[in-house]
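**User:**
My hope is that you can spare some time for a protein that puzzles me. This is the protein in question:
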Amino acid sequence: MTAPSHPSGTDRVAEVASQREYASYGVLLNVQGDEPFVSKSAIRGAAEIVTSGKFPLGTAAAFATDDILGMPHIVKVVTADDGRALYFSRAPIPWLREPGDASVRHPLVRQHIGAYAYTRDALAAWVALPQHPLERVERLEQLRPLAAGLAMGVATVTELPAGGVDTEEDLARANTRWTELSALERDA
């Protein structure tokens, strides 16, 4: 429904946001298509980061176990003390240099959740930027604004994401979950 030339979901959101019927929206939300079961708290958290005026860009993450560090299909994020994203990666971050520091690293491990919020100006600034080499290498669109110095806040939520849809097995699992949720809705 949007131009096939867009390099990311954010670029698609910007196309839709530019339509006249959405001109009055000051904050825009994006839930990534490969994470159809994003929690309300993740969406709310990303939106509140932006609506509060703390950051012009917002997203969400959940504390996770060290098990995710070796999984490149799970995106990790590290943040500053004020909640600003420092870096997103498919690699194990933060890196554990000294095994004795494992207990220090553990509370820093966060799994990114595919929900974004933007002010209209921040969204326009993001999509006006050329794709950054970090974005291309990691295949993570959120590295484009970070590399350009745009601040993105990260809301930390308690529930881990239900899991993305990246493989055929993930799709089968998502279809099963969708069927179960649809049955609950019908029975309610």
Remarks:
- The longest strand covers residues 110-119.
- Residues 168-187 form the longest helix (20 residues).
- The chain has one domain: 9-162.
- The mean pLDDT is 91.
